[in-house]
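the two lines:
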Amino acid sequence: MTYYALLFVAGFAGSFHCIGMCGGFACALGADARGASATSLRHVLYNTGRLSTYCFLGALAGALGQVICTSLATGSQNAASLLSVSLNAGQRVLAVTAGLLMILMALRFFGVRGRHRLTGGFGSSTLVVSLRSLLGRRGYAAPLSLGVLNGFLPCPLVYAMLAQAASTFDVLSGCLSMAAFGLGTFPAMLAMGGIGRLLAPGWRQRGVRLAGSFILALGLVTLSRGILPMSDHGLHHLWHFT
Amino acid sequence: MTPAPDTLCRHCLLPVGRRAFTRAVNGESCQFCCYGCCIAHQVKSGSGEASEAAWFLVRLGAGSFLSMNIMLFSLLVYSGAFTGADRRVLPTIQLLLWGLATPAVLILGEPFLRETWSQARRGRLTSSALIVLGSLAAYAYSTLAVFQGGGHLYFDTASMVLMLFTLGRYLEAAGRARASRDLAPLLAAESELATVIEAGLEQRRPVREVREGMLIRVKPGERIPVDGLIVEGRSHTDEAVITGESRQIAKAVGAAVLAGSINLDGPLLIRSSGSGGESRWAQICRSVREALRQSSRTQRIADRVVGAFVPIVLAVAAMTLVYWLHRLPLDQAMLTALSVLVVACPCAVGLAAPMAHSLAIGQLARHGCLVRSPGALEALAATRLIAFDKTGTLTLGRPQLVDLASDGVEQDEVLARLAALERHSEHGLARAIALAASARGLDPIAAEDVQILPGRGLRGMLHGHAIAAGSAALMDELGWALPPALLERAQLMAASGHSVVFVGWSENALAGRARAALSFDDTPLPEARATVEALRELGLRVTLLSGDHAGAAARVAATVGTDDWQAGLLPEAKRAALDQFRARHGAVAMVGDGLNDGPGLAWADVGIAVGSATDLARETADLVLPADGLWLLPWVVGRARAVRTTILANLAWAFGYNLVALTCAVLGLLQPILAAAVMAGSSLLVVLNSLRLERLPGPAHPSPESEPGPTASGPSRVLALLKAES
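prediction for all of em together
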């Protein structure tokens, strides 16, 4: 449970990053003319859409983790130990990859940028045109759709959390990890839609640093799961406890 | 450029860091901390209209919300989350899945169902029938399983298949929206509003309601809606849509502006010189719209194949089902048949050509090149030989005086008399003579009783004396003597390919005699040589079919470097020559000026008119280049070939992929969801491959600076030549 709480807090801290990017959507989604309850519904739908995308991606990542470590493990002797506490080779590889990925993402939050840059060809500009047209639409399908598609927008925070979800090697855990993270972003994002005002950049930057620290910590723990020998009981127990 | 460290992201207001994203949004350079912010900012701040793509996107969003949840729970079920103690909740989960799947199938399946139904009523089976059949079968089977207990559920298959195909539809619509964005300025003439000033009031009116003499205000950055004259203000305009060449042209009060050109930097007040619907821009719009409406031969063949494909696929799926029923349980066999249906859907085939065509037509039109139909582009791509219809296509069409040989008289006197006589002629040579005379500062005088003798020349009276100008035959006819020295010079002139005119007059009531020989030359276009060379580099044979005399044709052919030439051809002979070429080289294209060579252009496989008649509606050529747009020809050919390659690649991919995937599906090697995913990928590939056409470079003018302005340098050049002579 502590583990999911940790992810929830990471999501909450990370939402200071979200406010910048996705908060823009929440603001643009704006108020409904039919009153406060309709407005709230719009924003809840938008966030539900986002959450369901995260859960779906989390479950997929978990399933992927499961498939990868099962297929990697079949060759080794440890195939039977998959359900036990000890980690097999596949899980180690995955944990190391996920950990490194998370650390890389965390560094981005501290302002260190890699050469990684997505190209803005067909995808971006077409998506832009279409998403733009969703913002102004009436009805409840549009905010839901916006939320669902918003969940697929490139975001280092989501990538990091997906890496974490993949390293759980389980569909349900992956899904729940992302759900915890997604719920963590709810308060800020809902407030965003309600208040419709940006926080002072200074505060948000502190929030982003905090989120970066959380991801860095999670990344280091995940990495250590892959690297440290099984006998390192202290850390292992700590992890298992969480 | 590295931004200052304290630069804030335009969207989220966080510091952008050292490696900022810099993108132009609405013409303004903005910096972003990440790609996502960049997209979000564009979405928020840009202006766009709701399109078909957005409609699919709403459907896709709502549908994927449901299908993702279905998929999520199905994944949980598959991964064994509900075994053991949690087994009790399984029926509830199944009901939940059904509850999610029913709206998902309705929302996502509705467009496909509607299309199937409307086509089926006309007795046609389309590819959407395959999707509908496949997903409904999976849905119906699973629903039965939920309510009768037992059996596997395939709600995830049904909804994911539909979602992935909706994704394909969205991609298609988005690609089309993208292509039409390119076409927007060209199709705008009919929908654009003009700011008309009437009785001191500004009114927004449709362009087609603008009449001659109305005052129009055009703000900087706007498109000028009608042809007209500037009454107030100064600015630069870009006339690329009309002339094909994108460059800034300074305009001040009194200057003419063209409809469709962009007013770049200053507010203008324009007095319309014609009605809004008659401008060349409006004609271009109509022509482009017409071209987009047609489909090419390749596309028609592809459509017919698809039409035949669907029933075959249905039969194959049925056979697959029957075959596997003997070896597998019902649901497994059904899944295999479903894979067959899904994977055989030839969606990408329908996408192969139209998008590439509309992109190319739009791009060509933005540079002033009009294509009559997509078929013309395909024919041009297949062409192996380009024939130039006349020397005039490769030359300036303005003969210039290059040499004057006189026999005992002053050059000035010859020119003055000749100019007086030629004032009455509309012939191209007359203009050259008038230019030469005015360049020498000779006072214009006028001859009387001027008679035009077709094919031979002119005769008239000047100061009471007979005067004539024309061929040696005319001098003979008049019984006027031709001094041997003059004749010799004239023969030399003709041998170098120039047109020669003799001038003679009588003095003191005696019989006249020829007193001078003048030679005229039509200079090849400055870019003609480069154009012909570029065409030959494209592997085309270039030839000249001229009605002129052999000397002139040979000289032009040699100067511009065509492979061969034929001279003295009458229109019938040109047709015969085209037929010969066609027999030897396949498809042939013919380039003319579009004014009086209509039949020749129509006889070729592709008729290309350069700088044609003002009325595009009466134009017979398949391809119309802007005036002075010969240099665009190699680019147009390259573009046509790129389109053809793209379409062929698209078709090869779509069909090839379908066949391979179909085989896998029949053998039961392909899961339906995977099949649908790769189908959507196939659509995406076709769309992306077509959009690659956008990235090809635009035309590069050989050298706009070095091109001599004909009006500026023409007379001075004659002057220099004549001075050198005397």
